Amino acid sequence: MRTSVGEHLVWDKSMFIQPLVPVGHSLFLSFLLAASPILVTLFVMGVLRRPAWQATLGGLLIGLVMAVGVWGLAAASISNGVVFSVLPVMWIALSALFLFNVAMKNGRFDAFRGWILRHVPNDRRIMLVVLGFCFSAALEGVAGFGTPVAITSALLIMLGFPALDALTYVLIFNSAPVAFGGLGIPVTVLGSITGLPADVLGATIGRQLTPFACLIPFYVMALYGGWRSIRQTWPVLLVAGGSFALTLLLVSGAGLYSLSNVLSSSVSLVVTILFLKLWKPEPDAAHAIDLSTVEQQEKTASAVPLWQGWIPWVTVIVVVIAWDALHVARIGAMPIHWPGLDKAVYISLYNAPYAAVWKFEPLGTGTAILVATLITALLTRTTLAQFGAALLTTLRQGWLAVVTVALTIGLAYLMNYSGMTYTLGYGISSAGMLFPLVSVFLGWIAVFLTGSDTSGNALFGNLQVAAAHQLSLDPVLFASANSSGGVMGKMISPQNITTGVSVTSLKGQEGVVLARTFRHSLVLTVSIGIVVVFQQFVLR
């Protein structure tokens, strides 16, 4: 792999040329300095237990020092990342949070909880599977960006789960579905970045994640209730995980990656609820929900038919799918070539100029979710007072998440355009034949930084392809590994954790959540690496 620009290559002399090994010609030292912003962020959140915005601000400041003092660039890259963080990333998250708060204020959230309690066995372990896995995956399919974590963890808390436990379990559940979240946007971006067929990438990612989709319910149940709970609930764990995994494998393999998660989660949710009509676990008082409090709340709440609890969630799924099918997002969309950054940077690793184009989509997915919120408000006859209260609550809950995500993605763009991410990628790809095992950590790092598998694929997807070509490995497999490894970094991303804690009592305690999820993230990422090694050297 080349580390410098060849003498026969031509570039604009005004371009900034990314140095791959800027510190004393030492890849090891350069790698350590390039990793320092990430290490600082992890240390401040995970060890010092400081809020995510403080951790990411510390990482950004260190990154700025490194970018200016060692690599030699900062400038417009941070502003580009900040704008991208607002639109589309946080526009989607805030719109979905607004939908959640409207459902809270008009009583449909309580009605949904009541419907689940009436139609699902009174057992927290079953609730954990139905809500934390099946329902959360359905929300991930249309929204993503931390929204499923916030909504489903709030549901679990209302059913008696401690806030930290609820958030931890949902963060782990919110792994396998992420690669196809937002109607397959991560796969679409990966195909666009790498030039590889998106349908082939989707099928490969589906094969990589199928075993994890099936096993994740068992993994979380082991954390919650131990082996005893697994023995008592394994049939429903197998039905929920197996139906999701099988549908994911078939749909993604058929080239319909944009619908993979929506269909998989929908099938899993419906099949699991129907299965629970035929099979129920043995009653266990240790895991029973105290219905007295719930019934008292129902008596004091306004009378809302329980079936109406489904209106917000069915509405948002239908609207977003229709929005995508009709290509509404294309209306008014325009590319913005970022001033002072677009093609002003030369990527030494690729021997090519670096584009910086922000896609302005006023009618993107966030707007679709907002429209679904308005339709929900009309269908449920939400009063102006309730609507206004939901809006104020959303702004109060979301402003710190906006700041945190802006800092996080600003750091990601700074590292990307300065060349620090390419130094990290170059260092990891230098592992030679060990690259298949460690390449998944490229995606893991990218999603940790950006909070988005979509952004992670944009960050490192092409680097995986370049490294695979250099090592005579399958480029499709390793581009896909970037996405599959990235989903396991979602549970430790400051953006995801911050959005999740925004509706709980854990605001400001993101570091505590990170400490709980970090080891699980590492275990699952290493497991993905083993699957990729098996695919490369055994199945091919």
From TrEMBL:
<protein>
    <recommendedName>
        <fullName>L-lactate permease</fullName>
    </recommendedName>
</protein>
<comment type="similarity">
    <text>Belongs to the lactate permease family.</text>
</comment>
<feature type="transmembrane region" description="Helical">
    <location>
        <begin position="234"/>
        <end position="256"/>
    </location>
</feature>
<feature type="transmembrane region" description="Helical">
    <location>
        <begin position="55"/>
        <end position="76"/>
    </location>
</feature>
<feature type="transmembrane region" description="Helical">
    <location>
        <begin position="82"/>
        <end position="104"/>
    </location>
</feature>
<feature type="transmembrane region" description="Helical">
    <location>
        <begin position="300"/>
        <end position="323"/>
    </location>
</feature>
<dbReference type="GO" id="GO:0015129">
    <property type="term" value="F:lactate transmembrane transporter activity"/>
</dbReference>
<comment type="function">
    <text>Uptake of L-lactate across the membrane. Can also transport D-lactate and glycolate.</text>
</comment>
<feature type="transmembrane region" description="Helical">
    <location>
        <begin position="178"/>
        <end position="197"/>
    </location>
</feature>
<feature type="transmembrane region" description="Helical">
    <location>
        <begin position="209"/>
        <end position="227"/>
    </location>
</feature>
<dbReference type="GO" id="GO:0005886">
    <property type="term" value="C:plasma membrane"/>
</dbReference>
<feature type="transmembrane region" description="Helical">
    <location>
        <begin position="368"/>
        <end position="392"/>
    </location>
</feature>
<feature type="transmembrane region" description="Helical">
    <location>
        <begin position="27"/>
        <end position="48"/>
    </location>
</feature>
<feature type="transmembrane region" description="Helical">
    <location>
        <begin position="522"/>
        <end position="539"/>
    </location>
</feature>
<keyword id="KW-0813">Transport</keyword>
<feature type="transmembrane region" description="Helical">
    <location>
        <begin position="125"/>
        <end position="143"/>
    </location>
</feature>
<keyword id="KW-0812">Transmembrane</keyword>
<dbReference type="InterPro" id="IPR003804">
    <property type="entry name" value="Lactate_perm"/>
</dbReference>
<dbReference type="GO" id="GO:0015295">
    <property type="term" value="F:solute:proton symporter activity"/>
</dbReference>
<feature type="transmembrane region" description="Helical">
    <location>
        <begin position="399"/>
        <end position="418"/>
    </location>
</feature>
<keyword id="KW-0472">Membrane</keyword>
<feature type="transmembrane region" description="Helical">
    <location>
        <begin position="149"/>
        <end position="171"/>
    </location>
</feature>
<keyword id="KW-1003">Cell membrane</keyword>
<feature type="transmembrane region" description="Helical">
    <location>
        <begin position="424"/>
        <end position="449"/>
    </location>
</feature>
<keyword id="KW-1133">Transmembrane helix</keyword>
<keyword id="KW-0997">Cell inner membrane</keyword>
<dbReference type="Pfam" id="PF02652">
    <property type="entry name" value="Lactate_perm"/>
</dbReference>
